[in-house]
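@channel sequence for tomorrow's demo:
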Amino acid sequence: MSSSVTIPAGSVVLVSGATGFVATHVIGNFLKRGYKVRGTVRDLASSSWLVDEKHFKSYADSGDFELVVVPDISAIDAFDEAVKGVSAIAHLATVLTFDPNPENVIPQTVSGVTSVLTAAAKEPSVREVVVTSSIVASIMPVGTKDHRPDTVVDRNTWNESAVQAAWAPPPYEPSRPMMTYAASKIAAEKEVWRFMNEIKPQFTINVVAPSGIIGQPLHQKHVDKPGNWVKSLFEGDKQTLDTAFGSFFVDVEDIALLHVGSILDPKIKNARLHAWGHSANWNDFLVVLRELRPKKDFIADWPDYYHLRISTDQSQSVALLKKWGTLGGWKPLRDSLLETVESPYFQLE
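structure tokens (generated this afternoon):
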């Protein structure tokens, strides 16, 4: 834990996409550290659970947590009101429709980034901004055939093949939604760095680029979200699981902490924080899940056992976790899976 911070406790932090899996953990982390949080949501009715007894009601009652409506993040002035008086912004909101048509995803995602950064640049109180990217902005973390053992991802690595695949003309093959999503993350992150280099705003910008995120769900929607691989393993959904047997996985609390640390740490400036966590595959998951649920008959192990053979320098991310957290690094896979299945929202048996 560090005593030197970019913004003092009591400052207001804006968290976009407040109902999201990572965002709810980011909110909780900031509130526990004595910060005030303003969360953006598309509508208040479907987001009211954030201020119930199980979540952040006490903070809302004390005035330390509030929700504001941003119905369309891609609108030019979407965040102009939301940013007023805030000291930092964690922009996690994105387009998660998995629409295969790039015209319905990529421009809107980029516009969301432009909108929040433009609003921040007009608000003198903003000193720190972190934007959520993804491993897929650099590389598709699936299979081994397309990646040589010496494939190394660095700050300048971009997944250009996904962009080409996303913008290919229809018909849209089954893999297109994921390619379109990846292309949206690439375009959005490139917009972050363009904005920083050309506009030169008064605030520091950092990017957190996680791999597959697992861990404790804080609402039923986090269990039901696309890409919940633990749920797929419980349901025996091999069709979904076969698309990404070996990959990298990181705990949601680690990713939340990296967002918090990248805002609060004065030494982190203009960083592209690769946050991949552990290399693992579904057989590794099944070993743990069978231990945690010995009475359940899980699907059989995959016969072709491999781990993804790509790498990146995660030292800056690990250093942040050590400095601002308590575990000394990435949360172990077993702990993440335990916290997933023990959540009251995870009702699968």
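heads up for whoever presents: The two ends are 38 Å apart (CA to CA).
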